[in-house]
Design a protein that fits this description.
Length: 162
C-alpha cells in the first residue's frame, strides 16, 4: 500500500470519459491524493483521446506520475494509445480482481476505464484497488516483464532503423 504523499496520480480523458474523470478527480482529491489533471479540461465532443492520454502515459513512463488513470468512452482507445508508450503497462479494467492483480502480477501502471460503460461508484472502487496494490516482484513476474521490455526494445530498434 502506498503513502498518499508518495503516490502521484495522473488522470486524463477525452469527451467520452470527461464526466467520469471529473467525478474521480474530485473524489481522489478529497481523499487526499495528489492528482495531476492532463485534460480534457472542458467537455468538447470533437476532441481526440490521444491528445490527453499520450501526455499522461509519457508522464508515467518518465516517472513524473506513479500511476495513471486513462478514460475514454469505452476505455479501449485509451488502452491502445497508452500502451504505445515505452514502459507503460495499461489495461482496460472492469472488475476488482483485475484492478489489483494487474498491479501485483504485471506491474500495471495505467488503468483504463470506459466513461460510458463504468458507473462512477464502480470506477472509484476499481481505482482504490488499483492504487492500493503493489507489485509482488516475484521472480516469475519479473521474468515475464523482462520479456515485455525486451520486445519493446526490439520494436524501438526497428523504428530507429527505418
Amino acid at each position: 500500500m502506498h503513502d498518499l504523499e508518495t503516490l502521484l496520480i495522473g488522470i486524463a480523458a477525452d469527451h467520452g470519459g470527461y464526466e467520469l474523470k471529473v467525478q474521480l478527480l474530485e473524489a481522489l482529491t478529497l481523499a487526499g491524493y495528489i492528482v495531476k489533471d492532463f485534460g480534457a479540461w472542458e467537455l468538447n465532443d470533437g476532441d481526440d483521446y490521444p491528445d490527453f492520454i499520450v501526455p499522461l502515459a509519457r508522464a508515467v513512463s518518465e516517472g513524473e506520475i506513479t500511476r495513471g488513470l486513462a478514460i475514454c468512452g469505452s476505455g479501449v482507445g485509451a488502452c491502445f494509445v497508452a500502451n504505445k508508450i515505452v514502459d507503460v503497462r495499461a489495461a482496460l479494467i472492469t472488475d476488482s480482481f483485475s484492478a489489483h492483480q494487474g498491479v501485483e502480477d504485471d506491474n500495471m501502471n495505467v488503468m483504463c476505464l470506459g466513461g460510458r460503460v463504468t458507473g462512477s461508484a464502480l470506477a472509484l472502487e476499481l481505482v482504490q484497488y488499483f492504487l492500493n496494490a503493489d507489485f509482488k516482484a516475484e521472480e516469475r513476474f519479473v521474468r515475464r516483464l523482462d520479456k515485455v521490455a525486451a520486445l519493446e526494445k526490439k520494436q524501438l530498434k526497428k523504428v530507429r532503423v527505418s
